[in-house]
Amino acid sequence: MNRELEHLLDATERAMQTERVEYRGRVHVGVDLGTAYTVVLVLDEYFQPLAGTYRFAQVVRDGLVVDFIGAIDLLKELKRGIEHRLGFELTHGATGFPPGVPRAEVRATANVLHAAGLECTNQVDEPTAANAVLQIRDGAVVDVGGGTTGVAILRDGQVIYTADEATGGTHFSLVIAGALDISFEDAEKLKTDAREQARLFPLVQPVMEKVGAIVSKHIARYDVHEIYLVGGTSMFPNMGPVIERVTGVKTIVPPKPLFITPLGIAMNDKIR
Prior knowledge:
By secondary structure, the chain is α/β, with parallel strands linked by helices. The protein has helices at about 5-15, 70-85, 105-115, 125-135, 170-180, 185-190, 195-220, 240-245, 260-265; strands at about 25-35, 35-45, 50-55, 60, 65, 90-95, 120-125, 140-145, 150-155, 160-165, 225-230, 250. The protein folds into two domains: about 5-125 and about 260-265, 2-Layer Sandwich (Nucleotidyltransferase, domain 5); about 130-170 and about 200-255, ATPase, nucleotide binding domain (Nucleotidyltransferase, domain 5, 2-Layer Sandwich), CATH 3.30.420.40. The chain is built from nine helices and twelve strands. The strands form three sheets. A five-stranded mixed β-sheet has the order 3-2-1-6-7, with helices on both faces. Strands 10-9-8-11-12 form a five-stranded mixed β-sheet, sandwiched between helices. A two-stranded antiparallel sheet has the order 4-5. A hairpin with a 3-residue loop joins β1 and β2. The longest helix is centred in the last third of the chain and has 23 residues, at about 195-220. The protein starts with a helix and ends in a 5-residue tail after the last helix.
């Protein structure tokens, strides 16, 4: 991973924590309505992170908005918080969607932005958004989110194939909840506790292997030599090695994979 990308991701992490921003200029805004986390990220006109925020919320399931009112209310709240930190109103933004989602559901995601006071300037599939950051010429980008695993195959920097299937971090939590006889919400918290992850690994390993099988199926007809894992689920320890073992393809987990797709979505905000 190159140094420039590491600096960009470090800056994104800082932007999530910055309380006040002294900037007056054009901005690029990205809204990632994920199954587990909704992320809002604001970049300056040179695509450098200014401010961002994210919140766990179950308003989307497998790429589909299932709680329209809840999604709008959440986005309004996150938008107000960022506007307070920036000192000006946000008026537009791009959003992402898992590849393969019906166009009607993609429009529903755009409607959430409109209802929250943001003109939706662009809609981009999530693996393509991730590659706006990674800049991979040849290989596969795999976005393992809360509910789905999205796959994009690239040749000469262009996406030539995309696919999406329902398996992701939510399935980790369901397995943990069932095995330990705890609530889904408690399983979500346990899953992200670094002190517990080694103990939980044997429980979630089969789900990781299922993700690997999904990836294997979709790259089988293509000459793929590297896989890049992004999305919050990719942060779970040993995710990369398991996918590499199952697929037989070198697998790379960039730093801070949760922020890569939202960053790419913001880069695709086509401000006028």
